[in-house]
């Protein structure tokens, strides 16, 4: 029995399912999750001493790689001064100034502790500002686990929101309208009928929680237009894409200005954090200026601010996104080519350092229905074949992958060699 096996059994005694976030349990791929002891650069090491090239990167935050010296130094410095005060700090101002500089759609930002809090607050704000209750989301987009957002009305035709988790009141879920990602015609039809009831559209501008699905040309523009015409707010959930697909996030990459933006992951440099921001008029509706309430004991936590600032400063100074995109493209094209050599189709996509691979699909999916039509069992076999060869991919066919600045050419070569062997093995 491996140490990970033992730890997983022990964890299950006092932690539901043995994990503190469901996807970590390997339920999507089978087998025992690897318990990670340490990480350095692009590599993670498990409790059995096995090393893996890491394409999860803590689900996105670790864009500089693990244990980046600037982040560690910033944390060490803060540790000598205190870890939490519950009072304002200069670091929070520095963070707000930097974020507003990097994302010009914002001139005011509120720090919170997770992406979930950011999107939950953004919705409350949009509802408070517009005085409307309905919100629009897209099937397969994940915006954290706030009640209004844990709703998937099913893909295809619009239906009224149905809770997708027990515990979400139907009375609340009915205000969440779900459409198919990339279905501009459905968006227009819904707004023609109910535009005046809708407080906001919330969207992942590149969807990263149903594997990786790109917005089709015109889709994000349609969202902008229907919001302009109806007075609904457009919320870009950039918890994953922010500072990853471009320094200025997906809004810079695609040239669309949202009304509100939610952030998380990279902005905390690996510590728990989230943020929401937008134009001052909107943000001033939040307490203590306005009456939309939001608060947090640990919000703007000094350690999280310093880890995030070190990360963002590095990105601003080094402008690495073009190189990161090129590395990621080499990775996904190499994986697709390795699959083809064994007669298997494996469409692959990337935007900046975020990617999706689809073993067995005919073409890259454009919505959740198409993602689901894939061969999940094949992904599971590919995942384990790669894991056996020292490559740690997302333990689910429905998650995006992430490349960091610490992934070297040699790491990519080693991954592609592992992919070639893995495709051979699973085809055999
Ligand atoms: N929004 C998006 C796009 C996400 O990918 C996630 C988490 O993966 C969240 C929100 C929720 O963030 P958190 O897990 O920090 O609550």
UniProtKB/TrEMBL annotation:
**UniProt KW Membrane keyword:** no
Q: In which pathway does it act?
A: Porphyrin-containing compound metabolism; protoporphyrin-IX biosynthesis; 5-aminolevulinate from L-glutamyl-tRNA(Glu): step 2/2
Query: What does the record give as EC number?
Result: 5.4.3.8
Cofactor(s) essential for the protein: pyridoxal 5'-phosphate
- Mention any one GO cellular component term assigned to this protein in its UniProt record: cytoplasm
- Presence of keyword Protease: no
Question: Which Gene Ontology BP annotations are present?
Answer: protoporphyrinogen IX biosynthetic process
Catalysis: reaction(s) = (S)-4-amino-5-oxopentanoate = 5-aminolevulinate
What does the subunit section of this Swiss-Prot or TrEMBL entry state?
A: Homodimer.
What the entry lists under PANTHER family is as follows: GLUTAMATE-1-SEMIALDEHYDE 2,1-AMINOMUTASE (PTHR43713), GLUTAMATE-1-SEMIALDEHYDE 2,1-AMINOMUTASE 1, CHLOROPLASTIC-RELATED (PTHR43713:SF3)
Q: What is this protein called?
A: Glutamate-1-semialdehyde 2,1-aminomutase
């Amino acid at each position: 029995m491996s140490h990970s096996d033992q730890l997983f059994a022990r964890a299950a005694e006092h932690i539901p399912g043995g994990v503190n976030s469901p996807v970590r349990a390997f339920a999507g791929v089978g087998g025992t999750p690897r318990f990670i002891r340490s990480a350095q650069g692009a590599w993670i090491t498990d409790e059995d001493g096995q090393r893996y090239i890491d394409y999860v990167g803590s689900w996105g935050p670790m864009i500089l790689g693990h244990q980046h010296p600037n982040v560690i130094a910033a944390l060490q410095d803060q540790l000598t001064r205190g870890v939490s005060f519950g009072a304002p700090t200069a670091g929070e101002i520095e963070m707000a100034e930097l974020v507003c500089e990097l994302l010009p759609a914002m001139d005011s930002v509120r720090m919170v502790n997770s992406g979930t809090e950011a999107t939950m607050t953004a919705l409350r704000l949009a509802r408070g500002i517009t005085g409307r209750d309905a919100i629009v989301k897209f099937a397969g987009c994940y915006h954290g686990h706030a009640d209004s957002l844990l709703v998937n009305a099913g893909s295809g035709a619009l239906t009224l929101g149905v809770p997708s988790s027990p515990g979400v009141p139907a009375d609340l879920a009915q205000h969440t309208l779900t459409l198919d990602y990339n279905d501009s015609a459905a968006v227009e039809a819904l707004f023609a009928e109910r535009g005046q009831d809708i407080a906001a559209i919330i969207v992942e501008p590149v969807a990263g929680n149903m594997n990786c699905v790109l917005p089709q040309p015109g889709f994000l523009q349609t969202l902008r237009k229907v919001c302009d015409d109806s007075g609904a707010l457009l919320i870009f959930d950039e918890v994953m894409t922010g500072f990853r697909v471009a320094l200025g996030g997906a809004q810079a990459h695609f040239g669309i200005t949202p009304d509100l933006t939610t952030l998380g992951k990279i902005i905390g440099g690996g510590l728990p954090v989230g943020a929401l921001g937008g134009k001052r008029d909107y943000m001033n509706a939040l307490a203590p200026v306005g009456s939309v309430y939001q608060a947090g004991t640990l919000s703007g936590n000094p350690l999280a601010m310093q880890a995030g600032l070190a990360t963002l400063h590095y990105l601003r100074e080094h402008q690495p996104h073009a190189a990161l995109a090129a590395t990621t493209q080499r990775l996904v094209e190499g994986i697709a080519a390795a699959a083809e050599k064994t007669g298997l189709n494996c469409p692959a996509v990337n935007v900046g350092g975020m990617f999706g691979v689809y073993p067995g699909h005919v073409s890259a999916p454009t919505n959740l229905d198409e993602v689901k039509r894939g061969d999940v069992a094949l992904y599971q076999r590919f995942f384990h074949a790669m894991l056996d060869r020292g490559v740690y991919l997302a333990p689910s066919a429905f998650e995006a992958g992430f490349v960091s600045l610490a992934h070297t050419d040699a790491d990519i070569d080693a991954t592609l060699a592992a992919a070639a062997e893995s495709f051979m093995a699973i085809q055999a």
